[in-house]
Amino acid sequence: MKMKLLSLPIVLLLFTLSTKAQQDTAALIGRWDMTVAMEGRQAPSWFEVYRSGYRTLVGEFVGAGGSARPVSVYQFSGGKLSFSIPPQWEQGNGNVTVEGNFTGDSLAGTITHPDGKQYNWTAVRAPELKRTGEPSWGQPQKLFNGKDLTGWHALGTNQWIVQDGVLKSPHSGANLVTDDTFTDFKLHIEFRYPEHSNSGVYLRGRYEVQIDDTGDEPYKDVISAIYGFIPPSEMVAKGPGEWQAYDITLVGRMVTVVFNGKTVICNREIRGITGGALNSKEGEPGPLLIQGDHGPIEYRNIIITKAK
């Protein structure tokens, strides 16, 4: 039996459509800084798309809260993007469903939460934040004067107090951020937490170095991890009631975390914002944020050295 050959115009059309689909898919691959218009506020989110094999698109997603979670399959056809993932901290019984399409070089669409509420979102390609050469460093400066909240402000009703040279949040309340913003820096910060409490230090207000009293294995959500992205190489926490220290270097996306004198993260790339970030504007300087909404926490000796 003879097979009917396709005419040349049809072959060219199919080739053109296939090439266009490949170009669109290539344009989608990468990291995207996402902003969701959610109930009167701009909620930061993030997602990444990469190939698994030749045809399948997979990746990760970070919502307004919680950690990075895997996206098993991105559907992308006709210029339209869609994916669905199980809920993490969202309320409701359904999945989180995201739909969108290109508007020029950016993306826009809707996100539907498990409770059925739908919100609009936009996304721009995340910057690489690569730095050429080694930075030169300025002089260390104290961010906390040990007397009052000069240089800081609460994001909400303030519960933070200063007592005996210690910055304290005696109970869950507002997060605290610096008035100043930063790009690349070295940070020394000491902290102490009671049993079962939780806090975190957000670098540029976007990347959380976790502080908590849970876990004895070096996973991505335990103390000294970059929450949801980078686990520590080992667990060196002293435990509740003990003063502990982070020495953190952030240059572009590259982070090193020295915890209680041991390097537990060595020059690793932070791929995207963590849940609870102030915003998703990764190309801009950002403040230091210390978390006060997850239980009692104390800080002291907060010293930053900025890159020139």
UniProtKB/TrEMBL annotation:
Keyword Mitochondrion: no
GO MF annotations in UniProt: hydrolase activity
Domain 3-keto-alpha-glucoside-1,2-lyase/3-keto-2-hydroxy-glucal hydratase: 140-304
Signal sequence, start to end: 1-21
Superkingdom, taxonomy of origin: Bacteria
Keywords recorded for this protein, A-Z: Signal
One Pfam family from the record: 3keto-disac_hyd
Cytoplasm in keyword set: no
Protein name: DUF1080 domain-containing protein
UniProt organism field: Ilyomonas limi
